[in-house]
Amino acid sequence: MPTDAARNLEQPLRGTGGLLLCRAAPDAVAPAAVLLRRPMLLAPAGRGWSVLVPTGLSWQGEEEPVDLVLDGWAAALAVGAPWPVLALWWDAGRAGFSLASGVRRPVGYVWLADGTPAGEDEAMRTFAGRLGLDPVHAVQALDGLTRPDAEADAAARLRGVLAVLAHAGLALPTGLVPVRPADALAEAAWTARGVRRTDRAGWREVVRPELVEASVVGPLMRGRRARLLAAAHLVAGSALGLWGLGRRSGGWAAAGGLLVAQGIAGLAYDRFRSDGARLPVPPD
Question: Which of 136, 141, 155, 267 lies 20 to 30 Å from 61 when distance is taken between CA atoms?
Answer without folding.
Answer: 155
